[in-house]
Amino acid sequence: MDVIFGRNKKEQLEPVRAQVTGRIPSWLQGTLLRNGPGMHTVGETRYNHWFDGLALLHSFTIRDGEVYYRSKYLRSDTYNANTKANRIVVSEFGTMAHPDPCKNIFSKAFSYLSHTIPDFTDNCLINIMKCGEDFYATTETNYIRKINPQTLETLEKVGNV
């Protein structure tokens, strides 16, 4: 899996100037926002599918022939739960979360059954959508996450969209 995904990506919280080969037209100005999987392992657990990694937001700001890059993990409920537990605790498209091995037999059974039909993830790693003046990270579930396009901060979760 490391061959396909590589290692977990590090955030680039402050904008860093990219090395540009060639010349960017003077009329090309603005910011390109992208997202995709960036973290493929949490603790000793790893995702089984390349659509499952935790979302990493990317920003490319083009201004006066220069490009600045920054990135930040989407601080979704899924990200927060997984990193707090230091393992995958929220199921994804191709990765089923397993119950906590430290729980007693009854807690394990309940945890397993509750993950059989899990609440959908808010790990919005598929696309960025602009709605009015707001920007949202999206995925195929019924949750989207509002983001700040300048800082890549994660804002509120919007459900049942």
TrEMBL record:
<keyword id="KW-0408">Iron</keyword>
<comment type="similarity">
    <text>Belongs to the carotenoid oxygenase family.</text>
</comment>
<dbReference type="Pfam" id="PF03055">
    <property type="entry name" value="RPE65"/>
</dbReference>
<keyword id="KW-0479">Metal-binding</keyword>
<dbReference type="InterPro" id="IPR004294">
    <property type="entry name" value="Carotenoid_Oase"/>
</dbReference>
<protein>
    <submittedName>
        <fullName>Beta-carotene oxygenase 1</fullName>
    </submittedName>
</protein>
